[in-house]
């Protein structure tokens, strides 16, 4: 069984019709263990709030997504447990702490992080963390 850390750019595609949604959904259909930091729920909630605020979805739809997300068999890790490494990664790579949190989890769990955030992915492909990051279409 493959283990992957998934970030919010991938998780939101499980629910919204976005580019790379099919690739993101393949993670749910496959024989994978999916790991997430607890921050994922906050980030997905924020995306859903924006969708409702800008008239791209309804509050009812957003609540349904939250219900389904909460029911998924994700391995959730408390961000406190690897915040020191997260900060080190953020400082070293000049990426945000939010994004670095997913990479820190992948590093500590010795697996790859799957992302659909092209800017983040491109910034890290030539870094010392390149082996821990995977583009969503390359699963």
Give an overview in words.
The protein is about 50% helix and about 15% strand. It is α/β, with parallel strands linked by helices and about 140 residues long. It has a single domain, classed as 5'-nuclease (Rossmann fold), CATH 3.40.50.1010. It has a five-stranded parallel sheet, with helices on both faces. Helix 7 links the parallel strand 4 and strand 5. Helix 3 runs antiparallel to helix 4. The radius of gyration is 15 Å and the shape is globular. The mean pLDDT is about 95.
Structural class: alpha/beta
CATH-derived architecture: 3-Layer(aba) Sandwich
Q: What is the number of domains? A: 1
Distance between the termini: 13 Å
In the CATH scheme, what's the topology name? Rossmann fold
Q: Radius of gyration from the CA trace?
A: 15 Å
The proportion of strand residues reads 15-25%
Question: What is the N-to-C order of secondary-structure elements (H for helix, E for strand)?
Answer: EHHEHHEHHEHE
Task: State the strand order across the main sheet.
Answer: 3-2-1-4-5
Instruction: Tell the overall outline.
Output: globular
Summarize model confidence as the mean pLDDT.
97
